[in-house]
């Protein structure tokens, strides 16, 4: 049996966090007196950690032979890191909290993706039915928080975003582990893969997409 709603719930809250955090957290930072340069540095930490943390956490998952405990730990520690924003508005504290949050939050999605496809077990066509709930969560968070901020102080961003992290943790606690494939594909050197023209084209497209989203998410709402 595919744990459809448990996986869908995880995607829902994961991307609801993105929908609450990406457009509105920069506004909160601006409201407490952070400069544009400081906001840029703080928000860039999410991408910096996404370049480092998933590989490290993936290696740990391979070594331990499990993924769910790491997903659950990352959800718990992400909440702990984000809670630091409630404690202090000092730039050094904001930087430490953001780095801590980003390192653990970025660990989870690649592992959940592998869990989802392992549970699907050859039914890859059903992935879209699960993943679509992430888009639903993103849209509801963006629209809902936008309406709330018409009447609530900007600091409400912190509490709404923290609630989405709580939803991630709740779903992580009920996601079951999945088996690993009996036959692993043959190992290919990284250099061989990177020399393929279609891989280079994909990476170049991803670079420009991320560059566009970096400017849009961080500064457009301001």
Summarize, please.
The chain has helices at 4-31, 36-64, 68-83, 91-120, 127-148, 156-172, 190-194, 197-219. The protein has 222 residues and is mainly alpha-helical. The model has no long low-confidence stretch (mean pLDDT 91).
Plain-language structure description:
By secondary structure, the protein is mainly α. Helices cover about 75% and strands about 0% of the residues. It has helices spanning about 5-30, 35-65, 70-85, 90-120, 125-150, 155-170, 190-195, 195-220. Helix 2 crosses helix 4 (about 90-120) and helix 3 (about 70-85) runs antiparallel to helix 6. The longest helix has 30 residues, at about 90-120. The chain is globular. The mean pLDDT is about 90.
Write a concise keyword list for the protein shown above.
about 75% helix; mainly alpha
